[in-house]
Amino acid sequence: MLPISCPYKAIFCDLYGTIFDISTHEDDASVWESMRAYMNDRGTHYANGAELYENYLHEMNQAQARGERDKGVHVEIDFVPVWKTLYERSGAEVSDEEAYSTSTYFHQTSMSLLEPYSKVREFLAIVRRLGLRPILVSNAQASYTRPDLKSYHFTEYFDRIFLSSDFGIKKPDARFFQHALDECGLSPHEVVYMGNEIGCDVLGARGVQMDAIYLHTPLSVPGDPACSEHATLNVEGADYEAVLSWLCKTPVRIEGDGTSARIIPAQSAQSA
C-alpha cells in the first residue's frame, strides 16, 4: 500500500453530493397524499395532502424562527418534533419513535434516487488503512441519514458520525466544525474536509483553519464555479482516485472492491 504524504490524521466528509447521489421531490403532490394516508392510518384526520402540506410548512417555519432566535441563522432544527406536532394538531397521540419513523418515511417516499457514488466504499476503506480516520460531518437530518447509511451498510465505514440535526447547528457555522474536532480530539491542521459545496464546505472548513477538498459534482450549488481559490484541492466530479493521488502525492488507481480494495500506481493500472 502506498503511503500518504499529507500531514492529516482524519478526513471529514460531507454526505449527499459527496458520498451519495440523491434526488428528492418533497413538494410533489403525490408525496403529500402518501403522507396523509400514512398519518391518517395512525389517527390523524387530514382531508387531503394539500392540507397536510400547508400545516407542515407552517410548523416548519415556526420551528425555524424559534431556532434562529435561540441559535442564530445557522440553526438546524430537528424535523421529528415537527411531525409529532402535526400528529397532535390533528388529534393523534404518537410516541417519539413513531414521529421519527414518520420523518424517515417522508424522506424515503420523497426520494427518486439514492445511491453511493462509484468507488466511494473503496475510497473510505483505503483512507482508513492509510491511517486517516474517515469521519462524517454533514448537514443532515438524523431521521433521514442514519437509515440511509444503514440501508447501504455505510455506517461502519466511518469512525464517527456528526449530523447537524443532532447538534442543532449546521455548516458553515464554525461551531459545528469545532464540535466535531473537539469530540474527536483533533486540531484543524490535522484534518482535511471533503465536500461538494463552496459555501458550506470549503469556506466553512477554512473558517476554522481546516484544509478543504472541493468535489464539483452535479449536486454542487447551481452557478458555483468548478474550482474554488479557497480549496486546497479542486476535483471535477466524485473522483476519489484524484483525491487519493493528491494524498499520496503520486498518481494512483483503485483496484478491487469493497474493504479489500487497494491502491496501485496509475502506470501499473495502465500497463495491465
From TrEMBL:
GO terms for biological process: small molecule metabolic process. It comes from the Bacteria. Keywords: Hydrolase, Magnesium, Metal-binding. Transmembrane segments: none annotated. Its cofactor is Mg(2+). Pfam families: Hydrolase. One of its GO terms (molecular function) is phosphatase activity. This is Haloacid dehalogenase-like hydrolase. It comes from Alloscardovia omnicolens F0580.
